């Protein structure tokens, strides 16, 4: 009888419906990350430039993040925008969809009428529109500052070779008033040419918190990877002729 009671008490500690198999609590951090990768990957595409001669060049990674009327909003880095080309995107299904540039940093539209204010950082972010797109969408965060040490997930096309998933953490934030990159997120994460434009996603919420834009190397250690915070979308403005643009913009 004594052994039976001991076994019964021990069982109360190790068997609980709240953490049983199949319950939300039973999911490990790794399982949640795998789910985040699987969901995000469906929204990530490779951005290409189509030149007048018909040559097609890979540019950057890009992510479907929302809807504007019937069009799909595509998020990427502004430095991926080029002049004199058309744009195409593929989501890994060998189908190419045409894109149009929608919103870019306001000072790039009219530097005379709308220059950057003091302490306003550069905004390496751009939004495209894809007509009649019916893609899974990655949700954008509300723009709150990410806590240092919090985990991140990204899916992109480093070197333009293949869609790759990788993880990292928020290493810090660049707090240098007056600097072009003031307020940017510093990340400890993998990055390579072609990764630019990748949506940076919180591993906890699965929402887009930034856009990978650059890496700066140092002979003393690993490169520092920068991301434009998603809150910087407030500095974007519709280009002339696009939905939402004013008639007096030039």
Report on the architecture of this protein.
This protein folds into 2 domains: 40-137 and 234-238, Trypsin-like serine proteases (Thrombin, subunit H); 151-231, Thrombin, subunit H (Beta Barrel), CATH 2.40.10. The protein has 3 helices and 13 strands; from the N terminus they run H-H-E-E-E-E-E-H-E-E-E-E-E-E-E-E. The chain has helices at residues 2-14, 29-41, 106-109; strands at residues 44-50, 56-68, 71-76, 86-90, 97-105, 126-130, 151-156, 164-173, 185-188, 199-202, 208-218, 221-229, 236-238. It has a 6-stranded antiparallel β-barrel with strand order 1-2-3-6-5-4. The chain is globular.
Descriptive key words:
3 helices; 12% helix; Thrombin, subunit H; 250 residues; mainly beta; disordered N terminus; six-stranded antiparallel beta barrel; 13 strands
In summary, what is this structure?
The protein is mostly beta strands.
Mean pLDDT: 84
Largest sheet: 6 strands, antiparallel, barrel
Beta fraction of the residues? 35-45%
Categorize the overall geometry.
globular
Q: Look at the structure and give the CATH class of the largest domain.
A: Mainly Beta
Structural class by helix and strand composition: mainly beta
Number of domains: 2
Task: Furnish the topology, listing elements before pairings.
Elements: H1 2-14, H2 29-41, E1 44-50, E2 56-68, E3 71-76, E4 86-90, E5 97-105, H3 106-109, E6 126-130, E7 151-156, E8 164-173, E9 185-188, E10 199-202, E11 208-218, E12 221-229, E13 236-238
């Amino acid at each position: 009888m004594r052994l039976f009671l001991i076994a019964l008490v021990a069982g109360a500690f190790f068997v609980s419906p709240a953490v049983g198999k199949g319950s939300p609590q039973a999911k490990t951090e790794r399982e949640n990350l795998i789910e985040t990768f699987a969901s995000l990957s469906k929204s990530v595409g490779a951005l290409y430039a189509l030149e007048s001669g018909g040559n097609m060049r890979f540019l950057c990674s890009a992510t479907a993040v929302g809807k504007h009327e019937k069009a799909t909003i595509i998020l990427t880095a502004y430095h991926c925008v080029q002049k004199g080309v058309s744009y195409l995107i593929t989501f890994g299904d060998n189908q190419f969809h045409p894109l149009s540039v929608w919103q870019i940093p306001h000072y790039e539209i009219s530097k005379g009428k709308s220059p950057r204010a003091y302490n306003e950082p550069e905004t390496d972010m751009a939004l495209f529109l894809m007509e009649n797109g019916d893609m899974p969408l990655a949700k954008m965060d509300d723009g709150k500052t990410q806590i240092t040490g919090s985990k991140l997930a990204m899916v992109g096309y480093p070197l333009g070779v293949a869609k790759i998933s990788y993880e990292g953490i928020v290493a810090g934030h660049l707090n240098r008033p007056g600097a072009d990159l003031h307020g940017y997120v510093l990340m400890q994460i993998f990055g390579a040419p072609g990764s630019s434009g990748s949506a940076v996603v919180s591993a906890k919420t699965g929402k887009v918190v930034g856009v990978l834009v650059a890496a700066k190397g140092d002979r003393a250690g690993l490169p520092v990877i920068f991301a434009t915070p998603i809150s910087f979308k407030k500095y974007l403005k519709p280009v002339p002729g696009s939905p939402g643009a004013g008639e007096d913009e030039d």
